[in-house]
UniProtKB/TrEMBL annotation:
Keywords: Glycolysis, Isomerase, Plasmid. One of its GO terms (molecular function) is phosphatase activity. InterPro entries: His_Pase_superF_clade-1, His_PPase_superfam, PG/BPGM_mutase_AS, PGM_Phosphatase. It comes from Azospirillum brasilense. The keyword Isomerase applies. PROSITE patterns: PG_MUTASE (PS00175). One of its GO terms (cellular component) is cytoplasm. This is Histidine phosphatase family protein. The active site is at 14 (tele-phosphohistidine intermediate), 108 (proton donor/acceptor). Substrate binds at residues 13-20, 79. CDD domains: HP_PGM_like. Gene3D superfamilies: Phosphoglycerate mutase-like (3.40.50.1240).
Length: 254
């Protein structure tokens, strides 16, 4: 029987972005809106985010050639594509950037009318939405014109099917966003709402943090992906890169 899953799967959150920095500035100033000039799709990495990506590149480059990723999938957002490009430039990927698979199903959770608002801004401008979120919880709450975690999970089910169909037996790197990392864990490990939200409450996924799975053929009827590490930041610590785990700009509705 042909192997359905990748042999190895790394899921990496992008390096620190200018949006992370702007969010921190908005909360420090106690204002309701986050000052970002670009669309969320176009928000670049910060200088620290570039340093984190460079450190992760050195970690991947130190792996034996036969253990590095041979398939790269990224969200279409600039900060994720740039993270992958820097990893490649540092010798960590044999895959050329022109061969990266840019998949919109790996994009950031969409925040709709709450985009660029802090918790204070949401309470001031859309108090009814703050109350809906309190009642429904973050897993099911969908802001107008935005997405719930369930909506993200729905598109990720399709993305995982594509990975299984086209990349079984390969070594796959996915560069994406915090909610996507968590929702992929939910799917790959068969979690419940309570289980994944408990992990979320433990802390944010670090910028350039690595979540790694390996295929175990002895699990289940046809094998299963087994978690090897989660939110792994040792590559950054060894390289002396700054560790950051800021929520994305719209953390109030994440």
């Amino acid at each position: 029987m042909q192997q359905r899953w990748p042999q190895r799967l790394w899921i990496v959150r992008h390096g620190e972005s200018a949006g992370n920095v702007a969010r921190d500035a908005a909360y420090a100033a106690g204002v309701g809106r986050i000052d970002i000039a670009e669309r969320d799709v176009d928000v670049p990495l910060s200088r620290q985010g570039e340093q984190q990506s460079e450190a992760l590149a050195r970690w991947f480059a130190a792996l034996p050639p036969g253990e590095r990723p041979d398939v790269v999938l990224t969200s279409p957002y600039l900060r994720t594509r740039r993270t992958a490009e820097i990893i490649h430039a540092g010798g960590g990927l044999p895959v050329e950037p022109t061969e990266f698979v840019v998949d919109e199903r790996l994009r950031e959770k969409e925040f709709g009318i709450l985009d660029r608002l802090t918790a204070l801004g949401i309470a001031q401008e859309h108090p009814e939405q703050a109350e809906f979120r309190r009642i429904l919880g973050k897993f099911y709450f969908r802001p107008p014109a935005g997405e719930s975690w369930c909506d993200v999970i729905l598109r990720l089910r399709s993305a995982l099917d594509t990975i299984s169909l086209h990349h079984g037996g390969q070594r796959v790197l996915v560069v994406s966003h915090q909610v996507v990392v968590l929702c992929l864990r939910y799917l790959l490990e068969g979690m419940t709402e309570e289980q994944i939200l408990a992990i979320d409450r433990e802390g944010d996924v670090a910028n350039c943090g690595v979540t790694e799975y390996a295929f175990d053929p002895d699990q289940g009827h046809s094998g299963r992906m087994q978690l090897r590490r989660y939110n792994f930041v040792a590559p950054l610590e060894v390289a002396g890169a700054p560790l950051t785990a800021e929520p994305d700009a719209n953390a109030a509705v994440r």
